[in-house]
């Protein structure tokens, strides 16, 4: 009998962008958004990070291709931000992050930091043309100690 488990393989997609936060957003609005995104993405097995710093958002999304594209369409229409600039949108063999995290400009846990480093290493070898902008942006958004 045909073993379906081995024939169905998931198509993984990753999208990253930066955007400008709507100036009416308060810190508590942002916290509320972070909490919603963390819960919703983790329940959909979407991994990555969402960060806010100095009026800008930076997001990395990884997950099943259609899920990621559908979510990104919704995000583009969200009035809580504007001027969304896509950094990359490509397939990947498997996700780098183990869960979804939303943070105010700092990655506190060592594990989150090492997953981001792994993600950057993969980008460097697979997508050298976007690696420069992504590593520049992650450094800008984070005050890594
Ligand atoms: C900067 C930013 C990032 C967002 N990221 C996500 C996300 O990763 N996952 C998510 O479910 N919603 C995210 N949202 C919220 C969506 O735009 C949308 O409000 C949410 O998915 C609920 O949509 P629905 O009620 O139409 O299903 C984000 C919004 C903003 C402003």
UniProtKB/TrEMBL annotation:
Name the source's superkingdom: Bacteria
A GO molecular function held by the record: blue light photoreceptor activity
PROSITE patterns documented for this protein = BLUF (PS50925)
BLUF domain residues are 12-103
What name does the UniProt record give this protein?
Sensors of blue-light using FAD
- In its UniProt entry, the species of origin is given as Aquimarina amphilecti
């Amino acid at each position: 009998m045909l073993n379906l488990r081995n024939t169905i393989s998931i198509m993984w997609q990753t999208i990253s962008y930066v955007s400008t936060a709507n100036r009416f957003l308060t810190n508590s609005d942002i916290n509320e958004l972070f909490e919603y995104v963390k819960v919703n993405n983790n329940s959909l097995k979407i991994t990555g990070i969402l960060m806010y710093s100095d009026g800008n958002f930076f997001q990395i999304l990884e997950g099943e291709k259609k899920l990621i594209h559908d979510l990104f369409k919704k995000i583009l229409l969200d009035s809580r931000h504007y001027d969304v600039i896509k950094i990359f949108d490509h397939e990947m063999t498997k996700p780098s992050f183990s869960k979804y995290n939303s943070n105010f400009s700092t990655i506190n846990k060592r594990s989150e930091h090492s997953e981001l480093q792994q993600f950057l290493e993969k980008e460097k070898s697979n997508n050298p043309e976007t690696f420069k902008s992504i590593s520049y942006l992650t450094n800008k958004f984070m005050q890594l100690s």
